């Protein structure tokens, strides 16, 4: 079993549904002992469905740290082939947040700035998004255009 943690968010990777249910019960009890509770909407068991996992389950994707992890088509460059994998890409919530950030900057109102000045202003922001969210499935960022 593998544990991934970031601030107050976490993932537990289990080998079976039974192991996941047992871990959820143990975590619920442990949190309760500490006076805490698991978030009822965010806490769920997710089946990481890909090309080789054929099971049918209610939850087959999840959001974590601005990424949506789900089943996607991937390209194997060396063989020039396509396969299905369970991978991350920028989430719809993160895309919406980026569009809102640009809207709040009121770029369209900056008519006094030249193209070079606009680039100096916006490039650090956009490069940060590309560096973080573009690490996996960069094409998912195209939706911000």
Textual characterization of the structure:
The protein is an alpha+beta fold and 145 residues long. 34% of the residues lie in helices and 23% in strands. It has 3 helices and 5 strands; from the N terminus they run ββαβββαα. Strands 3-4-5 form a 3-stranded antiparallel β-sheet. It has a two-stranded antiparallel ribbon with strand order 1-2.
Shape: flat
Major sheet details: 3 strands, antiparallel
Counting DSSP H or I runs of 4 or more residues, the number of helices is 3
Overall helicity: 25-40%
User: Structural class, judged by helices and strands?
Assistant: alpha+beta
Q: Strand order across the biggest sheet?
A: 3-4-5
Q: Termini separation (Å)?
A: 40 Å
Mean pLDDT: 88
**Low-confidence sequence ranges:** none
Amount of beta strand: 15-25%
Quantity of strands, as a count: 5
Topology order in helix (H) and strand (E) letters: EEHEEEHH
The radius of gyration computed from the alpha-carbon positions, rounded to a whole number of angstroms, is 20 Å
């Amino acid at each position: 079993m593998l544990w991934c943690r970031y601030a107050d968010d976490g993932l537990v990777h289990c080998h079976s549904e039974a192991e996941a249910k047992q871990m959820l019960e143990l975590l619920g009890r442990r949190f309760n002992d500490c006076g805490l509770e698991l978030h009822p909407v965010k806490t769920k068991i997710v089946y990481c469905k890909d090309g080789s996992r054929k099971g049918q389950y209610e939850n087959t994707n999840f959001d974590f740290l601005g990424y949506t992890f789900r089943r996607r088509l991937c390209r194997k460059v060396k063989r020039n082939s396509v396969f299905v994998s369970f991978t991350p890409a920028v989430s719809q919530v993160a895309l919406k947040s980026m569009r809102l950030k640009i809207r709040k900057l009121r770029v369209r109102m900056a008519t006094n700035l030249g193209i070079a000045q606009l680039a100096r202003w916006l490039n650090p922001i956009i490069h940060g998004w590309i560096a973080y969210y573009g690490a996996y499935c960069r094409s998912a960022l195209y939706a911000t255009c």
